[in-house]
Amino acid sequence: MSAAMRALWTVVVALAIGCSTPIQHGLDETAANEVLTALERGGIEASKARDESNGEVFVISVPKVHTLRALQLLQSLGLPRGRRSGFGEIYKQASLVPTPTEERARYLEALAGEIERTLETVDGVVAARVHLVLPEPDPLAVDGKPRVAAQAAVLLKARPAPAALREAEVQKLVAGSVAGLLPEAVAVVVTPATEAPSLRTPALASVGPLQVDRGSRKLLVGILLGGLAIIAMLAALLLIAARRLAALERRERERS
User: Fold this and answer.
1) pLDDT value for 245
2) Which residues 6+ apart lie within 8 Å of 79 measured at CB?
3) Could you count the other beta carbons within 10 Å of the beta carbon of residue 91?
4) In the structure, how many helices (H) and strands (E) does the chain have?
5) How far apart are CA 133 and CA 181, in angstroms?
6) Start-to-end Cα distance in the chain
7) 3-state DSSP call for residue 154?
């Protein structure tokens, strides 16, 4: 193969690899880095860039041929994680005249968000949801017993892992975060997370002297045929121009 053809192959491959598509938008830097790391560990090349419409958030892109596998991998890992509103976020903007009911609801939301953040840091936990019921005191009770006891419900989406939390450990962790809550009053439900897609090396197909991903073969062949058509057109135009130039030179010699 000539040097020119080898150069053309190189350009075609570069163009095919450069075709990427964004799969996540509007991520803060922490979430973007988490997604980028997960994709790289999964064997999928990814890039992070600032969103052109909003420079404060980021966009994650992957090669077009790996879009489906990247989305499946992120789904199995529960990424990007939903924003958890803890005390810092809930009480960042204080209400002008908060009612007791509103203040109680804000406190419950903030406390549940903090517990969810803690649970999601455990290896194997993809997502966590926590619902809390705080004790309601009974003013008429002589023994000080609450009218409604503290309760909690925890839903975990987790992957099978040796380091995964046991039910008793979840109950202990949640009960230790809420005043008056007993471990046995914490209901824990664990659902399996979606399995990650196979990370085996994709099958390769031959295109001339190159080995490429089967998903990108059609795109590569299309780009190559388009490049060859352009080269053929330019060669034809060059030949026509050379013939016209030769004819003009011949006429000039005949006149002289």
Assistant:
1) 86
2) 31, 34, 35, 38
3) 14
4) 7, 8
5) 9
6) 46
7) strand
Give 81-132 as a DSSP string. Answer: PPPP--HHHHTSS--SS--HHHHHHHHHHHHHHHHHHHHHTSTTEEEEEEEE
- Work out the number of other CB atoms within 10 angstroms of the CB of residue 205: 16
- The gap from C-alpha 137 to its chain's centroid, in whole angstroms, comes to 45
* Distance, CA of 214 to CA of 225 (rounded, Å): 17
Rounded to whole angstroms, the Cα distance separating 232 from 220 reads 18
As a whole number of Å, the CA-based R_g of the chain is: 31
Q: Write the pLDDT tens digit of every residue in 190-237.
A: 988 776 655 555 555 555 555 556 556 677 677 778 888 888 888 888
Segment 150-177 shows an average pLDDT of 87
3-state DSSP assignment of residue 198: coil
The whole-angstrom distance between residue 14's C-alpha and the CA centroid of its chain comes to 24
The one-letter amino acid code at 38 reads: A
> 61 with 23: CB under 8 angstroms?
yes
Tokens of 195: 């399995």
CA angle 140, 146, 148 (to 5 degrees): 115
Give, in order, the Cα–Cα distances in Å from 253 to each of 196, 241, 245, 249.
77, 19, 13, 6
Rounded-to-integer distance, Cα 28 and Cα 57, Å:
5
Sign of the dihedral defined by the CA atoms of residues 157, 158, 159, 160, in that order = negative
CA distances from 181 to 45, 113, 131 (A): 46, 17, 13
Q: Helix, strand, or coil here: 212?
A: strand
